[in-house]
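Researcher: First entry.
Model:
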Amino acid sequence: MLTRFFGTSKPLAVVLVFIYMTLGFFYSNREQFVTPFNWQEVIRLVGMWLLFISTMFILNFVAQKNDLTKRSTYGVLLFAAFSLSLPVALKDGAILLAGFFILIALRRIISFKSELYMERKIFDATLWILLAALAFYFSWLYLIAIYLGLLLYNISNPRYLFIPLIAFISFTVIYYSFLILQAGAPADVTIVFESVSFDFGAYNKVKILIPIAFFIALMLWTVWKYLGEQRNASSGSKSRYSVILGLLAVGLLVIALSAHKTGAEWYLIVPVMTIIVSNFLEHTESPIFKESLLWLIVLLPVFINYIA
């Protein structure tokens, strides 16, 4: 039933996912409704919801435009379900903002394949990643993805290698100037560099451990199939598969090195995971297995919120 309904591109399917996301988001933030009314909190919550919804629409646009998935609505449904399985992320405005900026940057990196307007794309991608780093510090590691994109798409113009550095210097000058204006004097400016941490203690909570364990198991299964699809793909499409896998690897590196692990950081790999799992569903021949897996994914947020 789900596979048949979401297996094609239907406006009604997107509307239903929109409602599913909205209900799930506000349920995850239900604590806000038992506190005294505060306009600032309302504006903040609505802003977080808009970021969440906008990320879904941008991901769908990127996947369809770059032929990362077929013309189905699996992508929007999977993004919604994976995200709602991480209620801790939906309460974290910084993570939602970082995820939004990173997705825009990944859109630019994936489009390197056309080799059009490369200077602008590389510069833009760097700026978006640095903006994401202001919200979630270790997002800066996605700068690696820019060089991975150039390498995997076999773009060898040496001039492109220096554009991220130029963008970084430009961003740093502007940001530092803003800090001086805010602090009043250069001596009063404080810049904090977070250290690497391998403390995964927060993952001991059942409501965080279950979705992460599910994500890991699902990725191990679907990435293997994704590699098989890459081997059978045309020579022109193989690099696109490699870029997606490279983006997943960078995302996992960000998660592993993050200083403050809460489980919310897994939200950053949800878009890439969505693309890989969507491909898996689109190429799986067993209708019973596909239907069962999709139901399991959709109901996972319900179970997580139930035990929360």
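Researcher: Second entry.
Model:
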Amino acid sequence: MTRFSDKTIAAAIATGLETLGVSRENVQIAVIQKHKRGFLGIGRKLAIVDLTVNPQLLEQKKKPAKDRVKLSKETPQLKQDPPQVMLKQAKKQQVRDAVIAAQYYLIDIIEKMGVAVTVQVDYTNKEAKYVLITTQEGRLIGKRGRTLNALQVLVQNYLEKKGAARVRVVLDVGNYRKRRRQTLERLAENVALEAIVEHKKIALDAMPAFERKIVHTKLAHNEKIVTYSRGKEPQRYVVVDAENKQRKF
């Protein structure tokens, strides 16, 4: 008997069948817990099922080769997944479970801040995007996105502890990430122009790595300046340098 969980009973069963490498008619299914949507993120529960492989199928696998019915050349043999494939499938399920669990972890943190919130998750193999829906967007964003960035770090650390370190976490609320990117790109262009005109280097305020990357990328093709990062986290910052570049007008 093996236990599986997912957003719905059907999804949990499908995950279990894929992991065990069997069809639905070859397992006995017991529903341990039905999924619950909750209200405003409170009381959410995953669906949980137990899958037990049919004893006859297990017995058939245990029989000596001489006792089994000899298959003709025309009879197709069932292809079973090797252990490596099953381990890979189990790992994928572990990561999916961690991403969903992080959703409830995030809701719990935010509600302890006194903010009612609903969290939607968009998950791919490489990225988990958590969209926060609330009437108090400003409290979750904070000054220059510092609160939102701190929450994002907490969720990233949570996934790392749950064995999903390769999943990149993105938190967003009120489409803030898009607006912030546009602001940083305008800032990068303005600072680059000032550095070129005055032939100097300018240090920006400290910002997280993914925001520094936006600045570096925006100015990567500007041949009149160079950009680089200095300092240690969390005070690491971008320098826009035109001192060593030939002025071109």
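Model: Note on the second entry: The mean pLDDT is 84.
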